[in-house]
Amino acid sequence: MKKASLLISILILLLFLSGCWDYKEINDVSLTRAITIDWEEETKEYIVCIQLINLKGMGKGVELNPQIIEGRGKTIVDALKNIIAITAKSSYWGHLTMIIIGQDIANKGLDDLLDWIARSPEVQLTINILLSTEKTAKEILTRGNQIKMVVMTEYGMIKAFRYISKMPNITANKVINHVQRKDLYAVIPTIKIVEMDGESFTEIAGSAYFKNGKLAGVLSSIDTMKFIFIINEIEGGILTIPTGERNSYVTLDIFRSSTKTKIDFPEDDIQITVNIKPIVNISEIDGFEDYTNKKGRKVLKEMADSYLEKEIEGFIEEVQKSPGIDIFNFGNKIKKTHPRVWKKINKDWEEIFKELKVVVNSDIKIKSSRHISKPIGVDTE
Fold first, then answer.
1. Distance between CA atoms of residues 181 and 327, nearest Å
2. In CATH, which of 3.30.300.210, 3.20.20.450, 3.30.950.10, 3.30.70.370 is domain 233-381?
3. What global pTM score does this model have?
4. 11 or 276: which carries more pLDDT confidence?
5. What is the pLDDT of residues 117-137, one digit of tens each?
């Protein structure tokens, strides 16, 4: 915590000591770390909350004191101006890591939000947009542990959850691009509050998908990982594979993974083949079977490949049934690689997608099992 506080102090001092065309006196600026945006249907108003960082002390004695300020307005800019009226300071957005929206915003549509982001000179287009699965987005700041949130966002909260493949890697500029186009669907991370030992913490896990800029559904963290496999954005995480033993599993730690999508037209039909190639370590063996020798690894690979193929194919089939929209953007791949075919089928793509044949092939490469070879319970003599 001391190291985190010291580093934040240094970064902020460097920021304001360096020259900049948009220079502002530090006493006239509040440092914004997070922002939540809700929509109140009764009053037809946006409710915007910003999390400010106030620093007290210097060096080892520095303290982080987050402060939550709320503003209301008929537009997002109007609400932000009202916040300035309360704080008597403008907000510095250089350290803003995320924009969290409420479900009312998602149901209303993302157009106004994305328009504000695209036009704002202070909001970076590489920022992450997250959907709160709580009743409002505001609760993420007011109920969650605020100190924890500041420190975690400073040291890669988003990157950490992305590494374990619990959230999709999509920034504001990608969301804008997907919403503007009719043949792409935006999928953004979801954030919620979890209770632990009497305290409330924020967790980024799962995702939400949009059709024409409006919320169409939510994916669990498990399904989100399957989705990330399909779109080739796996950066890490684990695979827990059930074995032939009763209630036993092998845990595989993912180093990296590559996914390539192939499009074929057998008998004038369309077939999508998703080829997945994860590289993994054996992280844990729950049971007494030895999967570390040559024979054991072959058996484990077969089990893991079969399990991954079945899980992802089943997930795709579920999406095809409901909501029945191409969140994987297979249609866009056809458009890029076979434009003439796409021109013929694009008007009927939603119906075609529901009946589309998708085959998943897994080719897992098992590298090692770290410090030990055989399971602990196996006799090594």
1. 13
2. 3.30.300.210
3. 0.84
4. 276
5. 999 988 889 999 999 999 999
